Amino acid sequence: MASSDGTLRLEGKVAIITGAASGIGEATARLFAAHGATVVIADVQDQLGEAVAASIGLHKASYKHCDVTDEKQVEETVHYTVEKYGRLDIMHSNAGVLGSVEGVMDMDLTQLDKTLAVHVRGTAASIKHAARAMRASGTRGSIICTASVAARQGNLGPAAYTAAKHAVIGLMRSAVLDLGAHGIRINCISPFGVATPMSCAYVGKAAEGVEDLCSEMATLKGVVSRAGHAAQAALFLASDESEYISGHDLVNDGGVTMVNQNNLRANK
């Protein structure tokens, strides 16, 4: 899949995508590979991850088991990538869990810890070890973190997930200066609701039901929010087309977080 002018936007680049066995990560892995990148699919879902890599083509993708809450596994994934492909140009820290869905007064703090471990500790480890590898090789790389519209508006996700995604954006912003000194860019994408296995399990609906729910909430009508839209945002931030963009949270929500939801309901 080339751009409209026929160019491959990631030709020759090597990317790690965490949480790439399904959902937004899978869509991004497929899109990156279609644009010329070699992709390492890092996940804990071994069968799914290996199947995604095989379907992309083992000359363009490989699977590496990686639990992002374990810093050593993240470090090993980066080392594996550099050893196998000779470089690392892109790190997409995308692995995530929904975590505890209770309100604050009923929140299971053990589940909160697990949610923060995946999103915050996992993102920190991904940034740390990807940036170290890029610095060592002199690569002007791109690090992308998956945040969420829940980090902009308090009623768009469970409390634990919302807190974790706020922290992801904070980590990104805090890393801009350190990484920028080495020519490394770091940004976030913040998608609206997408029919992924995680979101379908949360609302107890099939993909079509989640898409209907998101379309009902959407301000931009006529377009259904899908994983491919988040992947396109990541592609832009991974490519040289965004070479002077760092510290940005690219919100991909059709304008939902710009609108008072009470007004939206009143206008229906």
TrEMBL record:
E.C. designation(s): 1.1.1.145, 1.1.1.51
Broadest EC class assigned to this enzyme: oxidoreductase
Keyword line: Oxidoreductase
Name listed for the protein in its UniProt record: Short-chain dehydrogenase/reductase SDR protein
